[in-house]
Amino acid sequence: MSAPLEAGQPVSSGCRTIDGFVKITDLDSSIVIDLKYATADNFTHQKVYPTDIAVLRLKTAQKLVKANGLLKEKGYRIKVWDAYRPVSVQKIFWNLVPDTDFVADPSTGGSIHNRGCAVDVTLADRDGRDVEMPSGFDDFTEKAYRSNSPMSSEAESNLTLLTEAMTASGFMTLDTEWWHFEDVDRDEYENADVDPSLFQ
């Protein structure tokens, strides 16, 4: 294994929790964090998160660590594009793209991201570099669909690898967004108001 993988070891004991949430990298520092909404590199073309700290419900984060472990055995690791999302941000997204195929309506319960038990992820190599996938993040075209997207054999293989690791670890998929995974136990949680900056 290369140094980046060896440097990131799961740390599941003594992890700080706030209202049932944890910082993902406190559990496994080899998971790559690239929160798109903490930059202008997203469909809004503006920074909508005040911090680049990614948090999830503890049990959801533990499932993500399990998936990352499965992928590390094959020379890959997970890169997180989005995790817990405040409801205030969900309202911004809905105002920009009021289409339930791609954005959850905050007036009808919002997104599973608002509960802290959904993640948007992609596959990276052992050095943290993106590998080929069906599309980029937040692609509002059929390229984002799992079933309808014509994709290269390499992208299909990489997506299958990611999907198998995630579903084996307790996540379910969304057909319209290949990068989106939800904790199968999502119904145990409600929307939450947590400040990720508290984990600094």
Describe the strand arrangement of the main beta sheet, using strand numbers: 2-4-5-7-6
Chain-averaged pLDDT = 89
What structural category arises from helix and sheet content?
alpha+beta
Quickly count the domains. 1
The helix count comes to: 5
Count of distinct strands: 7
Question: What's the CATH topology label?
Answer: Muramoyl-pentapeptide Carboxypeptidase, domain 2
What fraction strand?
15-25%
* Largest sheet features: 5 strands, mixed
Give the fraction of residues assigned to helices.
25-40%
* Rg, nearest Å: 16 Å
Beginning-to-end CA distance, first to last residue: 29 Å
Order of helices and strands: HEHEEHEHEHEE
Which CATH architecture would you pick? 2-Layer Sandwich
How does the overall form come out from the CA principal axes? globular
The top-level CATH class is Alpha Beta
> Runs with pLDDT <50, length 5+?
1-12
What's the short version?
The chain is of the alpha+beta class and 200 residues long.
Characteristic terms for this protein:
200 residues, alpha+beta, Muramoyl-pentapeptide Carboxypeptidase, domain 2, 5-stranded mixed β-sheet, two-stranded antiparallel ribbon, 7 strands, globular
In words, what does this structure look like?
This protein has 200 residues and is an alpha+beta fold. The chain has a single domain (3-199), classed as Muramoyl-pentapeptide Carboxypeptidase, domain 2, CATH 3.30.1380.10. The chain has 5 helices and 7 strands. It has helices at residues 3-7, 24-27, 58-72, 87-96, 153-168, and strands spanning 21-23, 32-33, 55-57, 76-82, 118-125, 171-174, 177-183. The strands form 2 sheets. The protein has a 5-stranded mixed β-sheet with strand order 2-4-5-7-6, with helices on one face. A two-stranded antiparallel sheet has the order 1-3. Helix 3 packs across helix 5 (153-168). It starts with a helix and ends in a 17-residue tail after the last strand. Residues 1-12 have low confidence and may be disordered.
